[in-house]
Amino acid sequence: MTQAYDIAIIGGGIMGCGTALRVAKGGMRPIVLDQGDLGQGASGVNAGTLSLQIKRVKLMPYALKGHAEWESIGDAVGFRKTGGYTVAFTEREAELLHERQTLKAEAGAPITFVSNNALRAAEPHLSHKVRAASYCPDDGYANSSLTGQYYRAQLRDNGIDYKERAAVTTIAGSAGGFELGTSKGVISATRVLLAAGAWLKPLAALLDVELPVQARINTVSVTERMPPLTSTVIGHATGLLTMKQKANGTVLVGGGWQGRGMPQEGRGEVLSSSVAPNLALAQYALPDLAKARVLRSWTGFEANVPDFYPLAGALSGVEDAYVLGCVRGGYTIGPYIGKLMGDYILGREPELPLFDPGRDFTKDVI
Amino acid sequence: MAEPFDIAVLGAGPAGANAALEASRLGCRVVMIDEQSHAGGQVWRAKSAAVLSAPETPETSAGNQLRKAVSQSAIAHLGDARVWQIEQVPEGWSLQILVGGRSETIIAKALVLATGAREFVQPIPGWTLPGVIGLAGATSLMKQALMPPGHRTVVSGSGPLVFFVASEIRRLGGTVAAVVTPNSRMDWIGALPSMCRRPDLMWRGMVWMADLMLARVPIFWRHAVSDVRGEDAVSSVQISKLGPDWTPLRTVKTVTSDSVCLGNGLIPALEAAQLAGLEITHAPELGGWVPKVAKDGSTNLRGVFMCGDGVGIRGASAAEIHGKLAGLSAAEFTGKQVGLQKNRLYARYAAASSFGLAMTALSVPRPGLEKLATPQTIMCRCESLSRDQLLHEIEAGAASTNAVKSGLRAGMGPCGGKFCQTAIARLVASTKGLEEGAVPPHTARPPLRPVPVSALAGDFAYSDLPIPKPAPL
Fold first, then answer.
1. Which residue in A16, A116, A365, B391 has its CB near the most CB atoms, within 10 A?
2. A76-133 pLDDT, tens per residue?
3. CATH (one of 3.40.50.720, 3.50.50.60, 3.40.50.920, 3.40.630.10) for B5-118+267-360
């Protein structure tokens, strides 16, 4: 059965659902399609770190807005503003920390450098081998596992149609719109938004557009419930460790250590050669973690383009087609950039500029 | 571990040990890894060293023979070891193993997965009380420690295991307060033709039955334990009559007891197979979800073989033969000549399977049994999630085991979903009006068993950590 929607949004993650909610508020009738369950891609399997200390300098205004979005959603996604420390263990790391956090502070993040005494008072279980540390009171986390549950309820409450386990296999231009062939029937829509994360490249190819999208395969691990070990979000100067203890006592460890696999071949694969150093670093920072048992490690695909800035705007060469994805720090920024994208599709001026998907990725034009 | 093995066998039960023995006999370098100290698996589990003497049973003698064969072979037998990760590598397959509190790597050209089965226990009110034990769990206790599960035990469940457990409890000096089984006498009569193919096993069953009858143990046919009561431990159970699809109809009796054994058939343990990358399919007659495996144990993954109850619940006799087949296939893969050795095993495998599958058919729960769970019954023990909480999540749109896991953490606790996933998948299917085969288990991820951070981290110097260049600024 064919139904005409104002826009078909392919990809039911934070950005797709966020855009759907925005355009629906603006009077459009969207449908969200996902090849799996809502929020089970990068949106639902990332470590949930909301840290301004690990955001790119030029994306800081977006990250600040993103934090505010998550804070307003609150308990429904397990939001906690705990503050966060980034630590350095060597002289070289301390220099790196100083250089990078200074630039991020200048970009608007309320980051300060703290003494070891202050750090130990706040986080007594942390290693005493810390050489230098920075602090940001706005940092915290949300529970990314709740992404699907949250957006499913939002779409329902706002009367937005969605189809799960409906992979889009064909996109044909038709008079004044698109016909999407899915595993759950044909969908007609006036516009189309590609918001499928690591799956953007094959999706854009259906419209004969080549997007240079690649994927990083980030690993996350979680332990069993532990007695209180840390109350803030802990990061490492290189960005290779993020760690937080959830309200239920489990400790979540990430840091972008690489697994392997291709988005087209299903979920990625965990590599023990990545899990081991990731957890070694975690244990080095928080020695009491040694006793915790790891219950599950997994991977998620983080999409990127060569300049590591977002794709957010009109898809070049195809009228009424848009693309949104490849946002570094996409979990943090997702709900906000979804709103910006929605405004753009509604023909309104976004509050902050979008990122032309047709730019030359070899030059940093952002 | 330095030099790669030809074959790594996961599991030292009837299937795994026989696979290892066959491959070793043909000259392969074989390592056999198992969580128990001694070979034998669950069915032929060895006695604890603390047990000085005990009368021999068919299980102990089969196990002792197997253990003797293993000890006289060239197999490198790695006991008390847990495989937690499986990865394909250029040389073949790499296993991460937790042994003695450390994580070790073993590499082999071929992998034989003989991971066996675990039991399914239908959640019922009170099933988490101390004093409740699985039927198969009770067999482990009795085989290893020669200890009955309590003084006065109600034994409840489907298939032949319920009668074996009741008879073992009596042999070890315990009292069986009642045997309760959802099967009817007619179910058993229907299974007779297949049972006749193994008169030896049928005879054992008749001995168990005769013992229970002579002892005047009440047997409740087409009934189930519907409620386990007690404050801090079991004090009594309620028994309910079941309908033809095992829907509970009415409570008929309360029986006092200090212990209860519950079990509703075995399900293939397939996490290792899923982690290796084997495709799975739903086959209720084999016990549920099973990996796609040929009758000679080969799979469509290069260098991966699988055998025994892990590919479908056919029982120990079939597992022995299937293990031999998989061992021969794996040896063939590593370049050994096996000639026609596999051909002579197929007919025996079919005969043994026929008996085992008839027992599985008796054991597999019928759809009505899940109605024993009330809204407040705990379904996910690790996270203390009730049926009501799960139902609410499913009705709010979570239509897969992965979605339920994300929303509620069902399957994220220490058991990794091994206790809850079958029941949760059934709940998703029945709520959404789907076939059970449309609701696969959640994504398999390492570690297959919990692993301490210290074991993963190992001994390391900070300067040795392979820290790549930092993310773009």
1. A16
2. 999 999 999 999 999 999 999 999 999 999 999 999 999 999 999 999 999 999 999 9
3. 3.50.50.60
Q: Which of B94, B403, B453 sits opposite A294 (nearest CB)?
A: B453
Chosen for mutation from B89, B404, B467 (greatest number of chain A CBs closer than 10 Å) is B467
Which residues neighbour B247 within 8 Å (Cβ) at sequence distance 6 or greater?
B367, B368, B369, B371
Do B5-118+267-360 and B373-438 show the same overall fold?
Answer: no
- Residue A358 has phi, psi (to 5 degrees) of -95, 10
Cβ-Cβ contacts under 8 Å, B458 against chain A = 276, 280
Give the single-character DSSP code of B298. Answer: B
DSSP label at residue A80: B
The answer to whether the Cβ–Cβ distance between B403 and A297 falls below 8 Å is no
Q: Are B178 and B221 in contact (CB under 8 A)?
A: no
Distance CA(A213)–CA(B222), nearest Å, equals 60
Max Cα–Cα distance, chain A, nearest Å = 68
What secondary structure does DSSP assign to A163-176, as a single string?
A: ESS--EEEEEEETT
Amino acid at position A47, single letter: A
Number of C-beta neighbours around residue A160 at 10 A? 21
CA distance A347 to chain B (A): 32
ipTM: 0.94
- pLDDT, tens only, B51-110: 878 888 888 899 999 999 999 999 999 999 999 999 999 999 999 999 999 999 999 999
B460 and chain A: CB distance < 8 Å anywhere?
yes
| Chain A partners within 8 Å of B467 (Cβ) | 238, 240, 277, 281
Residue type, A203: L
Q: What region does B225 belong to: left with phi over 0, alpha with psi -120 to 50, or beta?
A: beta
